[in-house]
Amino acid sequence: MENISLSPFLTPSTPGPEKITPSAPDPSQGIERILYLLSIAVYGVACLLGVTGNGLVIWIAGFKMEKTVNVVWFLNLALADFVFTFFLPLSITYTALGFHWPFGRFLCKLNSSLAFLNMFASVFLLTVISLDRCLLVVLPVWSRNHRTPRLAWAIALVTWGAALLISSPYFLFRDTALSARNVTSCYNNFALSSNYTSEESRSLWKKRHRAMILARFVFGFLLPFTVIAVCHGVVAFQVQRRRLAKSPKPLRIIAAVTASFFLCYSPYHVLSLLEMSKTSGSPMVKRVLHLGVPLASSLAFFNSCLNPLLYVFVGQKSFRRSMRGAFEGAFGEDALLSLSSKRKSRAASQTEIRMA
């Protein structure tokens, strides 16, 4: 895939910086020009909203609220998105300069690694949150006795460690190279070699590229989506069965955050799989990738600024509530704790009946 890499998320399969270095589109090419400008605009909006919004969440959840289990989860989500959007100006500059990377090799590696660290940390945390919701409903007694902020912090650290481990290859493979046009490209050197012509290097490049795409799809999308879908199904069934409020706000927040993540990232994963398919060499597929990759990249970037907006606006009956009040409502545990209490009371009643 040539000349379409617009962000750290995208991993062209053609070896060699000369072939994979993207170029700013010709102004005469209307659609490409629009997508090029749209990418810069979306990156800018995501950076502005992401840094301010997630920074606000970190300030309120980290310093103004009691550290409940929910606050720990969403605080870590905000940290992942904040770090990523804080470094977005590097990608904005890279795109605006016609894909010339002036920041050096280390920041090339770091920028790409942070993008994938954010992706994996976010989806792993969403999976943990969904499992937490499910356990709270299915095992209320155990949750009451063991579900503590201290345990939540320990699990969050393990989650960050797993995300760091699985995103570390991107730091290893990311590299810079100066082309004959005096343009420095920031690209994925899967062969870890400057020899792009040998059959051995090209074969190794393709194998590692496929392995990275498959691992990213399985661990960053397929498995988490399956776990989250099952957990949400169990919680929804129990909520309906116990006739709890039809749509308690914390459940709406979790559903909205999860849905936004998968809607924003699914086009990226689809295009990644399409890139490694046998049809990727056809002119039609190349055209789809050329036009679709910038949009998929922009959408994935934009996800990092959505969560603070969802915390404030999803389920709000009044826009006059304070920010702290909005976040306390979003991170509240009353609804599911109520359901948990009902299940616990019912279990206790059944035990008493059996013992009578």
UniProtKB/TrEMBL annotation:
It is a multi-pass membrane protein. Residues 1-26 are annotated as: Disordered. Belongs to the chemokine-like receptor (CMKLR) family. GO terms for biological process: inflammatory response; phospholipase C-activating G protein-coupled receptor signaling pathway; positive regulation of cytosolic calcium ion concentration. It is found in: Membrane. GO terms for molecular function: complement receptor activity; G protein-coupled receptor activity. Residues 1-13 have a biased composition (Polar residues). The lineage of its organism: Eukaryota, Metazoa, Chordata, Craniata, Vertebrata. Residues 53-311 form the G-protein coupled receptors family 1 profile domain. The keyword Transmembrane applies. GO terms for cellular component: plasma membrane. Its main location: membrane. The keyword S-adenosyl-L-methionine does not apply. PANTHER family: CHEMOTACTIC RECEPTOR, G PROTEIN-COUPLED RECEPTOR 33. This is Chemerin-like receptor 1.
